[in-house]
């Protein structure tokens, strides 16, 4: 099977379609994070850290998420990573959407609804990730940290990603973040789900002429 090409492409190529895809993917991503936080069954790694920080500040979940993203971007400097328009949009849109959805969706306490929100949130997260990554407008802060460290150390992406997420979960847990079955489900499902969807969501220059027949 051919490898999906995810290298960033200039916004000048098919800007309307790719901008809409980027923003839609990021909005869905923020929504998915909010769903999982309200399920109360364990968070994805970076949300564990965000919740831990939130418990020691008076900030909202979305604000903490944005500040963590900015902190991660600062780590790009020694790694010589270059942000794209998608990188900046990632910080802003996800942070806003997390707070918007959490404002209208309360915590769930009945197991059935907790499971619905957890499974729905993880599934939506996979769809959202494939959607915004497939727009090819620059990696998110966490994605860039992963690829940057892999490039500078020579370690595999899998090893680097695992190391980052274990570190993030441990730090978040020590700060009071929620670790549970949702954390495990996310870790097991998000990679395969995103990989399966990327061939359908990734922008390609030659795909348009085939439509309309």
Task: Describe the protein.
By secondary structure, this protein is mainly α. It has eight helices and no strands. Helix 1 packs across helix 4, helix 2 packs across helix 3 and helix 3 runs parallel beside helix 6. The radius of gyration is 17 Å and the shape is globular.
Structural class by secondary-structure content: mainly alpha
* Biggest sheet details: none
Report the count of strand segments: 0
Shape: globular
**How many DSSP H or I helices?**
8
Helix content: over 70%
Average pLDDT across residues?
91
**What is the chain-wise order of helices and strands?**
HHHHHHHH
Low-pLDDT ranges: 207-213
Summed up, what is this model?
This protein has 213 residues and is mostly helical. The protein contains eight helices and no strands.
Q: Can you give keywords for this protein?
A:
single chain; 213 residues; mainly alpha; 0% strand; disordered C terminus
Helices and strands in order, then pairings?
Layout: H1 15-39, H2 45-54, H3 61-79, H4 85-104, H5 111-134, H6 141-153, H7 157-174, H8 181-201
């Amino acid at each position: 099977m051919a490898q999906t090409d995810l290298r960033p492409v200039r916004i000048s190529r098919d800007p309307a379609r790719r901008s809409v895809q980027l923003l839609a993917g990021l909005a869905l991503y923020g929504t998915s994070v909010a769903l999982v936080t309200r399920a109360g069954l364990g968070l994805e790694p970076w949300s564990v850290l965000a919740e831990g920080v939130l418990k020691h500040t008076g900030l909202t979940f979305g604000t903490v998420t944005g500040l963590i993203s900015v902190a991660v971007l600062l780590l790009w400097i020694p790694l010589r990573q270059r942000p794209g328009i998608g990188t900046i949009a990632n910080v802003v849109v996800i942070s806003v959407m997390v707070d918007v959805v959490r404002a209208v969706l309360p915590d769930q306490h009945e197991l059935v609804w907790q499971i619905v929100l957890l499974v729905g949130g993880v599934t939506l997260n996979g769809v959202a990730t494939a959607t915004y990554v497939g727009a090819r407008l620059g990696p998110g802060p966490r994605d860039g940290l992963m690829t940057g460290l892999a490039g500078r150390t020579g370690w595999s992406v899998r090893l680097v990603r695992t190391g980052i997420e274990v570190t993030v979960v441990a730090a978040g847990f020590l700060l009071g973040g929620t670790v549970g079955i949702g954390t495990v489900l996310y870790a097991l499902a998000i990679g395969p789900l995103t990989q399966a969807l990327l061939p359908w969501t990734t922008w390609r220059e030659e795909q348009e002429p085939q439509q309309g027949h």
